[in-house]
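Example 4.3 (complexes with small molecules)
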Amino acid sequence: MKENDQKLITEHTLHRTDVKELLKLMKAPYKRGDRIAVKLHWGERGNHSFLPPFYAKEIVAWLLSIGVNPVVFDTTVLYSGGRRQGADSIATAARHGYTKEYLGCPVIIGDGLDGKDTIEIDAGFKHFKSVQVAALLDRVDGFFIFSHFTGHMAAGFGGAIKNISMGFASRAQKQRMHADVSPELNREKCTACGVCMECCPSGAITLSEGEFPSFNLDMCIGCAQCIAMCPQEALKVLWGTDKMKFQERLVETAAAVWRIIGEKSVLVNALVSLSAECDCLPGPRERFLDDLGFIGGYDPLSLDVASLQMIGEKRISSLHPGVPWQRQIQYANEIGFRKNSGSNEKNDFI
Ligand code: SF4
Ligand code: SF4
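Answer. The structure with iron/sulfur cluster bound is encoded below.
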């Protein structure tokens, strides 16, 4: 860990074992009456290690107490399960206790129930010149980034950076991060509906009457829109990206989002229910460490570095040996992620 990292951790993070106590210390860069979106993960259907909703309830209560209007959200995902379609995801949220009645504010899907309510924002990095994210980014006044810190099979760990990246990304952007795509058709599932052809930005897909779509892979730009939008899940998702590139793409997406929301956001990492895999996977997960509590701040990179330090870098490496998670931190520093970070010192606070 660099000396500079250590200094920023000390300056920009607040440690508490209890989320309610932590919130009392936090300052909010919002104005009274602002609409504030709480980004969190309510767990895949069948997942056992997701954060129980009472933490989110505390956050919502805090936001209401300072005079803003909260809404809780997540985005649709690429793979099959209980969160691919918005309506299913809302049902999964409810099953896990994330309801308007319990939390005290609406629970919504940031990229729309059909996953199509997205916008393209500038990135200007080596992998992404732009990134596609939930349109909610444009529709609220500020954010509360609430991240369950976990291990992750491809990223090594997932914290605030991953929550801002995958968590805001459209389904197509999620795929762009995960793989160099060339779609592969499963004819048994395809109904020849033409949705893929309509959404393809490069004209790589053609569909003649009474036939299956055909894909010109020389024209394909690997945007993954067709895979994300196929209503029959007839297009195969390929996961063959090299792991360093995945880390970099993850960071670039987060950096592009943070550039827009950094001045009007606060963050909390939950270091509880610590398991080796993220909450996207169904089934029970063993805890690899006892609960450490909550850590809050105004800079996702500092918050993740502090979380890694609290858990122990060796322990993180042991969760998924060979996954170069360090690249996430190193690359975030290289591309100047911190320059995009919000600072509560620049804002008027409630
Ligand atoms: S969107 Fe899916 S189901 Fe429709 S034509 Fe394309 S591959 Fe087939
Ligand atoms: S990945 Fe993108 S460019 Fe390639 S066929 Fe699908 S929609 Fe078209």
